[in-house]
Amino acid sequence: MTLNVYLSGEIHTDWREQIVQGAGGLDVSFSAPVTDHAASDDCGVAILGAEDNKFWHDRKGAMVNAIRTRKGIEQADVVVVRFGDKYKQWNAAFDAGIAYALGKSMIILQPPEHDHALKEVDAAALAVAREPGQVVDILRYVMDSTLPG
Q1: In terms of pLDDT, which residue wins out, 87 or 96?
Q2: Which residues contact 128 (CB under 8 A, 6 or more apart)?
Q3: What global pTM score does this model have?
Q4: Are the beta carbons of 113 and 88 closer than 8 angstroms?
Q5: What is the per-residue pLDDT for 73?
Q6: Residue 96's domain spans which residues?
Q7: What percent of the chain has pLDDT over 90?
Q8: What are the b/e assignments for 100-127, b being 16+ CB within 10 Å?
Q9: Spatial contact of 135 and 125, defined as CB atoms under 8 Å apart
Q10: What whole-number distance in Å separates Cα of residue 57 and Cα of residue 50?
Q11: CA 66, 70, 76 angle in degrees (round to 5)?
């Protein structure tokens, strides 16, 4: 059984790489949004043409990025949504809502200081992890019933 995992959320740290490396040897396939911030911001205008108004610039990028995001979430068995320290990730919260609406198993990865702000998102998840290694431990347990340690 291959487990398809979509890694959504914060793009400024190496949490995705930690999970992918930690899950080495498991039959897990990972996908994610575009994590090159500049490419993600500018893909719409680079492909569909320039916009003078920043609102439309951003909207074009959001719509083009949504093609990849929707496909990744729809095909996922598990969606991991990371909320980081530095920025408010409204897009991650939206992805969590989509995953929940589609009935996807969801793991939230967040620091404790976000607990109150994300209480509704956390309540929709099957697990709330603090570290990427905990996500790996969950995936390992799901795949082969092995507990950490």
Answers
A1: 96
A2: 107, 108, 109, 110, 122
A3: 0.95
A4: no
A5: 98
A6: 3-35+74-144
A7: 92
A8: beeebbbbbbbeeebeeebeebbeebeb
A9: no
A10: 7
A11: 145
- Over 90: is that where the pLDDT of 100 sits? yes
CA distance 76 to 106: 10
The answer to the question of residue 40 being in a domain is no
Average of per-residue pLDDT across 111-132: 96
The CATH number of whichever domain residue 98 belongs to comes to 3.40.50.2300
Residue 87 lies in a domain: yes
What single-letter amino acid sits at 147? L
In this prediction, residues 1-25 reach a mean pLDDT of 96
Domain-located, residue 67? no
What is the average pLDDT across 49-71?
Answer: 97
Q: Is residue 13 part of a domain?
A: yes
Whether 81 contacts 108, CB under 8 Å = yes
Q: Which residue has the tokens 């905990």?
A: 134
